[in-house]
Specification:
The complex is a heterodimer of chains A (about 550) and B (about 110). Chain A is of the alpha+beta class and about 550 residues long. Helix content of chain A is about 55%, strand content about 10%. Chain B has 4 helices and no strands. Classes of the chains: A alpha+beta (about 550), B mainly alpha (about 110). Chains A and B meet through helix 1, helix 5, helix 8, helix 9 and helix 11 of A and helix 2 and helix 3 of B.
């Protein structure tokens, strides 16, 4: 390959990387946690909000009465299953008019339970939406709302990310054989970071290509479908998805009490796809002309088309199978092919081992972008010549170093603290969802402000210790809930994995804090990371952790 | 990363014309002509998927767009100049469009 190609692609890699790096750090860190959305949801649900399950057919009167009397359930009411039992509660959402399709925060949540006298009790829920918020941070690279405009921004970032991947590969290819697995640990710190950046990038390249391309699809699929409908499908696409509007008069009057029992629906789904384990029933339009129940679930032997699994769609009255297009284990080859793109992004295949693999790949990805930014800064360092004065570093490297430290460590600390807060907010505040968002952004922006005020070197150490404290607050909150039952916090023995993972994370951050402190004190002085000892002490006194 | 000394001696003696960076025109060529090429490619794919129900084949056609589009965008900087990038990609678009038109005539007949 010609040297000027390499040089040009180095420029491409530098600029696409530096523009998208920090947004991608947030997307990957929050995404790694989103892999464990369900355990985190259980971990953050107060014991008082847990409803005990009952044999699933006992819930049929609640389903029939609620669906018959509450038109708002028409868009989809969900019953959660646990093996052969069900949670005796029907849940649905009502979207604000004009809200974005993907913006779940604009929805109002309702649930119905049966009172002792057999009447339906509908109440509005105020869920904490904690795991959904972390998912939104993941989906729109750290922005607060999953809206059309924010998805546009995410799509641009994902496009830059793909170009950065290809250009990085082009730059590395000619020397790949020589550099691969060559982790030159030694005095040349920048060489070591570059080797590590290359190894992590190459090893996880397939994962990153899948992530970049699927993210662009998630950002722009509506626009691409719209354009293809005009120039490729000649308007047939919209027709295929526009529901034929049956006139209400034609529809037979349906009584939800005539619907099949949940156990029968579950049995039908299991027969349609051996190995499929149902986890929920979603009823839509059961009093309308196109009644449907989706039996959601997972099939450990197959891939799942969506993060929450796959589903079989039945007519809830006749039990006729309406669609197996999304049924894990019973998909046609083309549908399986399409579903695999989703499954590869969302780790919805292969069980727990794959979840941990994606968690680690996500964290490695976050580190890849962090290290990329550090390399950008180091490449522009002005070295001190022997005997001459200390050079003044370029302003853009000083700014980029501070921004990288503030954004990345601020994201880690903010997510940790808002997770820990899940154990203290229930019962104390009214709008938990707003508190979780507020806590995250307060920590995030405070960290950025601190990094700019103190400079990257000094701020990095204190911010890392802040991240240690925030992450440690997760297991400590659980522990306090166990030691002091009156505190309002609680500990769930089945979810100790969350607390132990946070503890391991806190220890890893503490190791980083100590290593960074050593670098700041003893590293070469002609660096944005360096703080001369006298000033370092002053910095330590001013920082809250010292 | 790779310095000039790593290049074979023959290449150095021939002295190929230097590659113009032309950042703006190459990027625009990749963005615009890469996108049009990806839409035409999805049209080509649709002519091969006639037996499949549209809700399935349409999804496959949509998924084809980002890899083609971003593939072109990320490889466009290999062209010798912005002008060459526009010329080659316009040509590729025209050829793909012609093949698509022929295939549509074939399937209509």
């Amino acid at each position: 390959m010609r040297a000027d190609h390499i040089r040009n692609y180095k420029s491409v890699h530098t600029w696409t990387g530096i523009v998208s790096g920090m947004a991608l750090f947030i997307a990957f860190y929050a995404g790694a946690l989103t892999v464990f959305k369900e355990p985190l949801r259980h971990w953050s649900t107060p014991p008082a909000a847990v409803v005990q399950s009952v044999p699933m057919d006992e819930v049929q009167p609640l389903i029939a009465k609620t669906l018959a009397t509450t038109p708002a359930t028409g868009r989809g009411a969900v019953l959660k299953l646990e093996g052969d039992r069900a949670i005796p509660r029907l849940e649905w959402q009502v979207r604000d008019a004009g809200a974005d399709d993907h913006d779940e925060s604009a929805s109002r949540h309702y649930s119905a339970m049966l009172a002792a006298d057999g009447s339906v009790q509908v109440s509005e829920q105020r869920p904490s939406r904690l795991v959904e918020f972390i998912d939104v941070l993941h989906r729109v690279v750290g922005l607060p709302v999953d809206s059309d405009s924010n998805r546009w921004i995410m799509g641009v970032i994902a496009g830059l990310y793909f170009v950065a991947l290809v250009s990085g590969l082009v730059v590395l290819l000619p020397t790949l054989v020589k550099d691969f697995f060559a982790l030159r640990v030694g005095r040349n710190l920048k060489r070591m970071w570059l080797d590590a950046h290359n190894v992590v990038g190459i090893v996880s390249l397939p994962f990153h290509i899948v992530m970049a391309l699927s993210s662009v699809v998630f950002a722009y699929h509506d626009q691409i479908y719209g354009l293809q409908d005009k120039v490729v499908h000649q308007g047939q696409w919209a027709q295929a998805f526009g529901r034929p509007q049956g006139k209400p008069a034609e529809a037979p009057a349906r009584d939800p009490a005539d619907m099949l029992m949940p156990s029968r629906l579950v049995q039908l789904a299991r027969e349609a796809a051996p190995g499929f384990e149902p986890s929920g029933l979603q009823y839509t339009q059961v009093t309308g002309p196109r009644p449907m129940v989706r039996v959601w679930g997972k099939n450990p032997e197959a891939i799942s088309p969506r993060a929450m699994g796959g589903f079989a769609a039945f007519d809830p009255y006749s039990g006729k199978l309406l669609s197996a297009d999304y049924l894990s284990g019973a998909q046609s080859t083309p549908n399986l092919f399409i579903s695999s793109f989703f499954a590869l992004h969302m780790a919805s295949f292969g069980g727990t081992a794959v979840l941990w693999l994606y968690f680690l790949l996500g964290l490695a990805g976050a580190w890849l972008f962090y290290s990329g930014n550090l390399l950008w800064v180091e490449t522009r360092r002005k070295a001190q010549r022997k005997g001459s004065d200390m050079p003044t570093q370029r302003r853009d490297t000083v700014v980029m170093a501070a921004a990288t430290v503030g954004v990345c460590i601020g994201c880690v600390a903010g997510i940790s603290l808002t997770l820990a807060a899940a154990k203290w907010l229930p019962g104390r505040v009214d709008d938990m969802a707003a508190w979780h968002v507020g806590i995250y952004y307060a920590v995030f922006f405070a960290c950025i402000a601190w990094a700019f005020a103190r400079g990257a070197g000094r701020a990095a150490v204190s911010l890392l210790w802040l991240a240690v404290a925030c992450t440690l607050a997760i297991p400590v909150s659980s522990l306090l809930g166990w030691l002091l039952p009156g505190s309002g916090s609680w500990m769930d023995g089945a979810l100790l994995g969350v607390d132990l993972t946070a503890l391991a994370g806190a220890l890893a951050l503490a190791w980083m804090a100590r290593a960074t402190a050593r670098r700041v004190r003893n590293g070469s002085k002609d660096s944005v990371w360096s703080v001369p000892p006298a000033r370092a002490e002053a910095g330590h006194r001013a920082s809250p952790q010292a | 990363m790779s310095d000039a000394s790593a290049e074979p001696a023959a290449t150095r003696r021939r002295k190929p014309p230097p590659i113009r960076t032309d950042w703006v025109s190459k990027t625009l060529a990749g963005l615009l002509l890469g996108f049009s090429l990806s839409i035409i490619a999805s049209g080509l794919l649709m002519t091969r998927l006639g037996d499949m129900p549209l809700p399935v084949s349409g999804q496959l056609a949509m998924w084809l767009v980002p890899p083609v589009w971003l593939g072109v965008l990320s490889l466009v900087y290999f062209f010798g100049s912005g002008l060459r990038a526009w010329a080659w990609l316009l040509g590729a678009n025209a050829v793909a469009l012609g093949v698509w038109w022929l295939l549509q005539q074939g399937s209509a007949a």
